[in-house]
């Protein structure tokens, strides 16, 4: 069983996001990047399957600031192999990223065959598509998204995946392997790994590098961002200001007037 | 390509989704501004009668096939590609929900058409369609030109739930229905085995008048007790956003949002919840929303009626004490 995990870095929205002077992109000088949250869950799901089925886990990641930290952390968690795809221009779109992943999966030595390809269901910057379905179609594999649990059938030819639907309903699907799954959440929260273990991985683990493959023209029209701005609260909420005791007392008064008590 | 605007109608388990009506309402506005017809596309198996619920559209395209009985994204996308093999619309609006997620991307990819996700609005500007999109967890808005003007490929637009009130898209009337045959083969390699209904939780969130919702800002499972105290004082229950559920701090039955429950309590207190669209989807129709967040730019303040910028862990005990004092005072 070989599991491939596709990872991307995204801006950390806990930090203040600055708009570039062009008014159409984020200012990359001020952006701290972190592993996309659902990609982190995809990695965790792969590690859980590795433990359960003695699988081999390969990570394929797109180069980005701070990506090495994320990759050494993945190594410390127990992945077997890490490949970083280098040489992409900044500002690449999700659709371009998907095509790079697809091509790299085919080109990079030893990546295929893979039985399962896992990635996050959706990233916060997926403006022009989602990685998992695009890669699945490129590779002619089945796709399922919003997955929260995977179990492998004894035959090794199929897997069972739980997909979330609205209102707490879930669906159990049988999927022919190899397949591409968009992970919403792993069965368990992503594991914590001590800093010392990450530092040890930095000394002993080798991140392999691959060049961005030469891509055929995607053939699709580019999506053109005309303007980017902060989504400032548009004055909807009446803000209560003061010390916690002050605002609490005032809010209680409002709740009383509204008949909540 | 025609000027036609199309909306993918989600039918799931025999019902048209609320997100479909919201998307129809938006599509209706766009079509009217363009002076173009609005078409709803319904896929399924033996569900033609649902077409009459799509009266906000001028017409309905119905695609019937046994393989469309359940929503398998690649199968649906293939059916839509075949349906659009002739005249293509100007834009195809697809609800961004757990039912349809992936279909828009697959459709755009297979048509070689532009894809724009995260749309909360579409403006018509001199014949151009401009999508207003909310990304980066709701913190950034972008205006996107949705593709070349008439004469080129259709744009596939993923629409956030809540783009318009669902009531505006509810119109039951008889509209022309065109049956479009498709040839589908069972080669996608995916089969639905069963649905798993949600386990009944200890609390029925939908029946609570007051909900105290916690998000990442609660920081630690140990702090949940503070939220419980406030909920007890207010006579309500504690629920959570996705990160809290994923951490295992609250059971799945307490999740509010895209994959969880949609609630409409009299009071919804959002504590340390940034306000990602996925969460807003589940609580935006609450009668009174109070938000506490340390980030003054948190998108939750866009839907809250009252906001407090501050540390949740400092505000919670003070608020609980104030509520208890108010109740004691009668």
Can you offer a commentary on this structure?
The complex is a heterodimer of chains A (261) and B (330). With 261 residues, chain A is α/β, with parallel strands linked by helices. Chain A contains six helices and 13 strands. Chain A has helices at 37-53, 67-77, 94-107, 131-138, 195-204, 244-257; strands at 2-7, 9-11, 33-35, 56-62, 81-86, 116-120, 143-152, 158-164, 170-176, 179-183, 208-211, 224-230, 238-240. In chain A, the strands form two sheets. Chain A has a nine-stranded mixed beta sheet, sandwiched between helices. Chain A has a two-stranded antiparallel sheet with strand order 2-3. Chain A starts with a strand and ends with a helix. Chain B has 330 residues and is α/β, with parallel strands linked by helices. Chain B has two domains: 5-179, Rossmann fold (3-Layer(aba) Sandwich); 205-328, Rossmann fold. Chain B is built from seven helices and 17 strands. Chain B has helices at residues 18-34, 73-83, 103-111, 224-234, 242-246, 277-283, 312-328; strands at 5-9, 11-12, 15-16, 38-44, 59-64, 91-95, 115-125, 128-135, 140-145, 155-159, 177-179, 190-196, 210-214, 237-240, 267-271, 289-293, 306-309. In chain B, the strands form three sheets. A nine-stranded mixed beta sheet of chain B has the order 9-8-7-10-6-1-4-5-11. At the A-B interface, α4, β7, β8, β9 and β12 of A face α3, β7, β8, β9 and β12 of B.
């Amino acid at each position: 069983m070989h599991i491939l995990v596709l990872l991307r870095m995204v801006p950390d929205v806990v930090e203040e996001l600055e708009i570039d002077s062009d008014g159409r992109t984020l200012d990359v000088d001020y952006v701290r990047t972190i592993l996309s949250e659902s990609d982190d869950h995809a990695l965790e799901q792969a590690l859980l399957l590795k433990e359960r089925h003695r699988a081999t886990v390969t990570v394929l990641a797109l180069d980005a600031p701070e990506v090495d930290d994320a990759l050494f952390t993945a190594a410390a968690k127990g992945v077997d192999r890490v490949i970083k795809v280098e040489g992409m221009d900044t500002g690449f779109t999700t659709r371009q990223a998907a095509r790079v992943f697809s091509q790299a999966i085919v080109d990079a030595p030893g990546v295929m065959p893979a039985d399962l390809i896992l990635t996050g269901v959706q990233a916060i910057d997926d403006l022009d598509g989602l990685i998992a379905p695009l890669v699945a179609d490129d590779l002619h594999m089945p796709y399922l998204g919003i997955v929260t649990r995977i179990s492998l059938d004894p035959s090794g030819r199929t897997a069972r995946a739980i997909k979330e639907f609205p209102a707490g309903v879930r669906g159990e699907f049988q999927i022919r392997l190899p397949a591409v799954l968009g992970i919403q959440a792993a069965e368990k929260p992503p594991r914590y790994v001590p800093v010392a273990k990450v530092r040890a991985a930095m000394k002993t683990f080798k991140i392999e590098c691959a060049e961005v493959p030469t891509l055929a023209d995607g053939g699709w029209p580019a999506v053109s961002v005309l303007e980017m701005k902060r989504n400032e609260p548009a004055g909807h909420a009446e803000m209560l200001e003061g010390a916690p005791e002050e605002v609490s007392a005032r809010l209680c008064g409002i709740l009383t007037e509204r008949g909540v008590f | 390509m025609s000027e036609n605007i199309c909306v993918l109608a989600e039918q799931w388990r025999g019902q048209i989704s609320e997100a479909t009506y919201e998307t129809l309402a938006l599509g209706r506005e766009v079509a009217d501004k363009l002076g173009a017809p609005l078409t709803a596309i319904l896929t399924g198996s033996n569900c033609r009668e649902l077409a009459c619920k799509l009266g906000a559209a001028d017409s309905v395209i119905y695609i019937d096939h046994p393989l469309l009985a359940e929503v398998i994204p690649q199968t649906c996308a293939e059916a839509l590609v075949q349906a659009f093999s002739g005249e293509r619309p100007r834009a195809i609006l697809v609800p961004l929900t757990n039912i349809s997620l992936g279909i828009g991307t697959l459709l755009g990819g297979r048509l070689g058409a532009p894809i724009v996700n995260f749309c909360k609005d579409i403006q018509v500007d001199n014949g151009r369609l401009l999508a207003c999109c909310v990304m980066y967890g709701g913190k950034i808005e972008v205006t996107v030109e949705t593709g070349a003007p008439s004469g080129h490929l259709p744009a596939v637009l993923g629409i956030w739930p809540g783009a318009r009130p669902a009531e505006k898209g509810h119109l039951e009337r008889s509209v022309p229905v065109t049956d479009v045959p498709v040839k589908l083969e069972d080669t996608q390699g995916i089969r639905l085995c069963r649905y798993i209904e949600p386990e009944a939780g200890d609390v029925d969130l939908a029946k609570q008048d007051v909900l105290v919702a916690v998000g990442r800002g609660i920081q630690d499972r140990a702090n949940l007790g503070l939220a419980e105290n406030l909920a007890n004082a207010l006579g309500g229950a504690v629920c959570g956003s996705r990160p809290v559920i994923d951490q295992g701090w609250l059971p799945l039955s307490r999740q509010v949002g895209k994959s969880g429950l949609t609630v409409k309590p009299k009071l919804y207190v959002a504590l340390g919840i940034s306000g990602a669209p996925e969460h807003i989807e589940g609580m935006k129709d609450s009668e009174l929303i109070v938000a506490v967040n340390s980030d003054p730019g948190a998108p939750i303040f866009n839907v809250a009626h009252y906001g407090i910028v501050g540390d949740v862990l400092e505000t919670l005990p003070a608020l609980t004490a104030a509520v208890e004092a108010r109740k004691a005072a009668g």
